[in-house]
Write a structure and sequence with these properties.
Number of domains: 2
CATH class of the largest domain: Mainly Alpha
Number of strands: 0
Structural class: mainly alpha
CATH architecture of the largest domain: Orthogonal Bundle
Distance between the termini: 33 Å
CATH superfamily of the largest domain: ABC transporter involved in vitamin B12 uptake, BtuC
Length: 211
């Protein structure tokens, strides 16, 4: 509910700001709302020093101590998010040709964008609830999946889920072995490895060879 509410605020603020391009407005609104929510999280951490270690580990992301009950909690919203995204696969393919072309073909671009944001927010909320804040997997997974299966969303969406899961398993295995017997938070591993890889992907994309 919190993720959907945050997404609604971001989308609402972006819709009000008609001076900026839709994508730019979403990015700016997302940055502002994200900063505000980060401040709230920092306040919660400051007021709950007894649970500081637990909160800190959750913020860094990891699967230590997780079990089937956590999966049972996060699976339903994740399933709904992926199913909803698959229902939007064909309209998203059309939107890939550009907003103007999609509008000419009769697609309600604003509604599609709102539904896509809602599905992505619900899926992200399920993932964060299960493993904490783990960065770059949601960026790298779809990029690698696109290189493998192409850009058609009916294949790209499930492939992204599988690729992201594989990346998480590899990162989790590395976090358990690199400083054994200590277990590093998975979010640290994904950030250290994911940031340079993502920058490399961006560089090749600009040269027309990558994404």
């Amino acid at each position: 509910a919190g993720a959907l509410a945050s997404a609604a605020v971001v989308y609402g603020v972006a819709a009000v700001n008609r001076r900026a391009a839709p994508t730019a407005a979403l990015l700016l609104a997302g940055t502002a709302v994200g900063s505000f929510l980060a401040a709230i999280v920092s306040l919660i951490v400051a007021l709950n020093d007894k649970d500081l270690h637990t909160i800190f580990f959750w913020l860094l992301g990891g699967f230590g101590g997780k079990g089937w009950p956590d999966l049972a909690t996060s699976f339903p919203p994740a399933f709904i998010a992926i199913s909803g995204a698959l229902l939007l696969a064909k309209p998203l393919d059309i939107l890939g040709a550009g907003e103007e072309a999609a509008g000419i073909l009769g697609l309600n671009v604003s509604l599609l964008r709102a539904l896509a944001v809602a599905a992505a927010s619900l899926g992200a909320a399920a993932a964060v609830a299960a493993g904490g804040v783990i960065g770059f997997v949601g960026l790298l997974g779809p990029h690698f999946a696109r290189l493998i299966v192409g850009s058609l969303h009916r294949r790209l969406i499930p492939a992204s889920a599988v690729t992201g899961a594989i990346l998480l398993m590899l990162a989790d295995a590395l976090s358990r072995s690199v400083a054994a017997p200590l277990e590093l938070p998975v979010g640290i591993v994904t950030a250290l490895l994911g940031a340079p890889i993502f920058l490399r992907l961006l560089a090749t994309s600009r040269q027309g060879r990558g994404l």
